[in-house]
Specification:
- The protein has about 700 residues and is α/β, with parallel strands linked by helices.
- It folds into five domains: about 90 residues, DNA Primase, Chain A; about 60 residues, no CATH class; about 130 residues, 3-Layer(aba) Sandwich (Dna Topoisomerase Vi A Subunit, Chain: A, domain 2); about 220 residues, Rossmann fold; about 80 residues, Arc Repressor Mutant, subunit A (Orthogonal Bundle).
- The chain is built from 18 helices and 27 strands.
- The strands form six sheets. It has a nine-stranded mixed beta sheet. Strands 11-10-12-13-14 form a five-stranded mixed beta sheet. Strands 6-7-8-9 form a four-stranded antiparallel beta sheet, with no helix packed on it.
- A hairpin with a 2-residue loop joins strand 8 and strand 9.
- Helix 1 crosses helix 3, helix 10 crosses helix 11 and helix 16 packs across helix 18.
- The chain starts with 6 loop residues before the first helix and ends with a strand.
């Protein structure tokens, strides 16, 4: 063990390991063009907190919704809810391989638990308990005591949240200023749960001044941005209830706007583009809540930028000027008692007004750069090119939540419709399970029968939707992917080249996607002229969001899966693979029964003369053995000849503890333990992740 490195050194370790720790700590985040996006330091989905993944120097990480500001260690500490020393020790051990000591009587930290690439339920409700108003607000590690505290009450007039503002200081203790010369500040919500006082948002967040709003049902409502503006607005403006929400622009979606139902609402925006954008979002929430009328104050020219009601009134202004602006507020676009024309059915054909259109930054890609949620894809190729193996491999990675080709994957349940017969698919799945030694049961199910997605009356569209819904309930998570293998069998005798039949198939596929939210993938065949793409009417390609062509030049050459169309992603990606045979057992005649698994065939980097492959990654199962080695090094590390490592026995014991190899003492368990451990150890050595010398092993992975 060694002394604890400095905070700057640990922050630098975390900066260089952002691709490892950010997805693990923030499972609801997403990666877009090399930037990791999350909605807050507490892990909420969103885009207000962007973090470059390949940063070469230290920089300040900021939550642009008005919250967090700090470095990698500050963010790690905030997200994990640890003290400064605890956060430093944990980060050093988990991502720097450094075991630290604080004195002889301090117990050693537990080994790092195995990482599971599985998105948590980021939308799980956080129900707050009431807070005793006499309870003091605790200090928040590096930020200290809050400069201001605003109290939020629920409909039962219980104190359920304190919204705290912390004023930042620089290294000398002086006020820290932003680029505009204003005091930098951070905001944190404090609630009480069964676990005690926690710095997190409740679900949903009540409006500020909610008891006043409910106690005065006949008064009009003025919505402002910020608690200071709301408090001052109550003094400046009479005969109205003044309310606001917590958390800036990102907090609008978290707030409960339902108390605005049936009320006359006026919105006073801050005097900048961000304020106008927030006002448009509040308009949409008020309309959705059923407000009787919604108006927006038109601010006059000449006001200082960002001016709001919390600022001093402009020279010469009086309270009457404020009242006049409110009285002259303009009706919000699209809101009002317009008379609907005959035949119009609200909700049947919804539209979004220009001013309400916002950039969608919150959608996670199902497979980074390859598949998007709820879309339609086609994987096609000639017979025996490996397209079904490719689709099965991709589907199993989604069900397991494993990274695929070093790309982020959002875990979800998978339904594989083996319309051409289930025996081959079952053996492929069994081969995958045996090769990767999977002991758990991922949310993956096979339908071993053909389906009719053509006929609207006698087809299986309704039945398949019901099956997907049932599978989601059984798995405890949404079905993310439905694979139909093959499109031809789903046509149920229809004509692939006829626009009517292909149109009916696409319409039913769209219905499945819309009603279940699942991504639907067809496995399909190439046409006679392979240069013209997938077989059938061009209507299919027009409706497809992602198209992947699988080809193989000869029986001895690798297969290549190439993305040939993307609707919402960059059309880029070529995945080379081979099929590795896996023996499953013996048939009644004593002959081996085999199937295949997909093995990535990456471009080889130049050899260093050792014969070891460099520049490629071992299979995901072997990578878990590498993580077990790091755990064993943390718990039982020693140094030999200047190399920090551990014994093979300690490594093997950690693999048993993590369930990677069996721990029993009978002969079969011992044989499997030895075989699996040695196989994966050899893979890690071959890919230059691990080195061994006799009974001693150490990690040599770079980057």
């Amino acid at each position: 063990m060694t002394a604890l490195p400095s905070a700057a050194e640990i922050s630098d370790i975390l900066r260089r390991c952002r691709r490892d720790w950010l997805p693990a700590v923030f499972p609801a985040g997403r990666i877009v063009s090399g930037v990791f996006y999350i909605g807050s330091p507490h892990g909420e989905p969103g885009s207000s907190l962007p973090i470059p993944l390949n940063s070469e120097r230290a920089e300040t990480i900021r939550d642009f919704s008005g919250g967090f500001s700090g470095d990698d260690l500050d963010l790690y500490q905030e997200a994990r809810g640890l003290s400064r020393t605890e956060a430093m020790a944990e980060a050093a051990q988990r991502y720097g391989g450094i075991t630290v000591t604080f004195g002889q009587n301090r117990p050693r930290s537990q080994p790092k638990p195995p990482r599971i690439d599985r998105p948590a339920n980021a939308n799980a409700a956080v129900i707050p308990l009431s807070i005793d108003p006499a309870t003091p607000v605790p200090a928040l590690h590096r930020l200290g005591q809050p400069a201001s505290v605003w109290e939020y009450y629920d409909a039962a007039n219980r104190l359920v949240m304190r919204h705290c503002r912390f004023d930042e200081t620089d290294s000398d203790g002086h006020p820290a200023l932003d680029a505009r010369g204003k005091r930098r500040k951070q905001f944190r919500p404090l609630i009480r749960t069964a676990a005690g006082m926690e710095w997190k948002w409740p679900t949903p967040v009540p409006l500020y001044h909610l008891p006043d709003l409910l106690a005065n049902p006949s008064l009009p409502v003025l919505v402002v941005e910020g608690e200071k503006s709301a408090d001052i607005g109550c003094d400046l403006i009479g005969e109205r209830v003044v309310v606001t929400w917590a958390g800036g622009s990102a907090g609008i979606a978290r707030a409960d706007w339902s108390p605005l139902q049936g009320r006359d609402v006026t919105i006073w925006p801050d005097n900048d583009e961000a304020g106008a954008a927030s006002a448009r979002k509040v308009v949409a929430e008020a309309v959705k809540a059923g407000a009787c009328s919604v108006r927006v104050v038109a601010l006059p020219q000449g006001l200082p930028e960002t001016w709001d009601l919390a600022d001093p009134l402009p020279e010469g202004w009086t309270d009457e000027d404020l009242e006049r602006l409110i009285a002259e507020a303009l009706p919000a676009e699209g809101v009002g008692p317009a008379v609907a024309p005959a035949g119009y059915q609200p909700g049947a054909l919804d539209f979004v007004w220009f001013g309400d259109i916002a950039v969608d930054l919150d959608t996670m890609e199902l497979v980074e750069g390859v598949l998007t949620p709820g879309a339609l894809s086609v994987v096609y190729g000639e017979s025996n090119c490996g397209k079904t193996f490719f689709a099965t491999d991709l589907a199993l990675h989604i069900a397991l939540g494993w990274r695929w080709r070093d790309r982020h994957v959002v875990q979800g349940a998978v339904i594989y419709v083996a319309a051409e017969g289930g025996k081959g698919v079952m053996n492929r799945i069994a081969a995958f399970r045996r090769h990767y030694d999977i002991a758990s049961a991922p949310p993956f199910a096979v339908i071993r029968s053909s389906v009719n997605l053509l006929d609207p009356d006698r087809g299986h569209t309704e039945a398949l939707i019901a099956a997907i819904t049932h599978a989601a309930q059984h798995a405890g998570m949404p079905v993310a992917l439905v694979v139909i293998d093959t499109l031809s069998r789903a046509m149920a005798g229809g004509n692939e080249n006829a626009s009517e039949d292909m149109g009916a198939l696409v319409m039913n596929a769209d219905r499945i996607r819309q009603e279940t939210g699942a991504h639907l993938m067809f496995v399909h065949h190439s046409g006679k002229d392979t240069s013209r793409g997938a077989r059938g009417h061009s209507l299919l390609r027009a409706a497809t969001d992602t198209e992947i062509e699988v080809s193989r030049e000869g029986a001895e050459t690798p297969s290549v899966a190439r993305i040939t169309k993307q609707r919402d992603l960059e059309t880029n990606g070529e995945f080379v693979f081979t099929l590795t045979s896996v023996e499953l057992g013996r048939n009644p005649l004593g002959k081996p029964v085999t199937s295949c698994i997909v093995t990535p065939a990456e471009r080889e980097a130049p050899s260093d003369g050792s014969g070891k492959r460099r520049g490629s990654n071992p299979p995901p199962a072997a990578q878990r053995y590498a993580e077990a080695l790091l755990n064993a090094m943390i718990a039982h590390g020693e140094t030999r000849d200047g190399k920090r490592g551990t014994t093979l026995q300690h490594w093997r014991d950690e693999c048993v503890r993590l369930g990677l190899i069996p721990g029993g003492e009978d002969r079969d368990d011992q044989r499997r333990r030895s075989t699996n451990f040695n196989k994966n150890k050899s893979l890690l050595v071959e890919h230059s992740w691990v080195a061994c010398d006799g009974d001693f092993a150490w990690s040599i992975r770079s980057g």
